[in-house]
Amino acid sequence: MRGLLHALSMELYGLPLTLPEFPRMKSLRGLGMSDSIQYADLLSARFDYRNTFYDREPRFDIAHADEREFGRHDFVLASEVLEHVAPPVERAISNAAALLKDSGVLLLTVPYSLEATTAEHFPELNEYGVARLGGRLVLVNRTAAGEIQTFDDLVFHVSFGDPALEVREFSERDLVCALRAAGLTGVHIYAEDYPPYGILHAEACSFPIAVRKAPIALSRDAVRDLAEQWRDVRQTHDRQMRRLTESFWFRIGRKLGLY
Questions:
Q1: Is the domain of 19 the same as that of 92?
Q2: 211 CB-contact burial (10 Å; exposed 0-12 / middle 13-18 / buried 19+)
Q3: Are 166 and 155 within 8 A, CB to CB?
Q4: How many structural domains comprise the chain?
């Protein structure tokens, strides 16, 4: 989570900021997919940001995205999402790219390996359901050709909501290739540690990834947001200094060189 938000800070501002330090820029539109409330509420306060969910309102299915959302977002967050999407995952990645403005950024985290290829657990997933049989969970699938398949070695991820079925484990190479094939050529893997924010990677893979269509370009509205905040901060600073200069002890301290 820290790594994801560190990547967002670097992609939007070019410097490391904690989330409470993010400037308020309501002209920037963001979309989250099942983001944790731990950071979703703060993002809502800073940006024109909307969090969505696959299984409850407000609903959003990245595999079947509403085309009215395309080209509207400055950033999209997909943290621990793409490993759960039914195949073909390329459709979801293509939709994520389509959501972005020309200078928008997609930030994602997924479990991935350094193997040669992605492990697609259910490549012919079509009509399926999960049932309990003999004390174990079993996935039953009817392929497009009508063949019945069963799988009993299921992996579920448990995070902020209900358990989610792992559909694949990406390889880094295949994931990067799929992102580039969707037109997201500016791939940055945030593999570096950043100890000031407690970002210390224990593994050599599964790092946060940022991808773009084109370099960031702040809109006039975004520049105005920053200018207004700078003006407000400067005005607050000036008011505080005026109050201090009226203080007898502050004037004495300045004479003595203490301030």
A1: yes
A2: buried
A3: yes
A4: 3
The letter for the amino acid at 99 is L
Which residue intervals of the chain are DSSP H helices?
2-13, 37-46, 89-99, 172-181, 220-245, 248-255
Which strands sit side by side in the sheet containing 100-109, from one edge to the other? 47-52, 25-33, 73-79, 100-109, 209-212, 186-189
Q: Can you give the pLDDT at residue 223?
A: 63
- pLDDT tens digits for range 182-220: 999 889 999 999 999 999 998 889 999 999 988 766 666
Packing angle, helices 89-99 and 172-181, rounded to 10: 50
pTM score, whole prediction:
0.83
Distance separating alpha carbons of residues 108 and 82, to the nearest angstrom: 9
Query: Within this chain, do residues 79 and 128 fall inside the same structural domain, yes or no?
Result: no
191 lies in the same domain as 83: yes
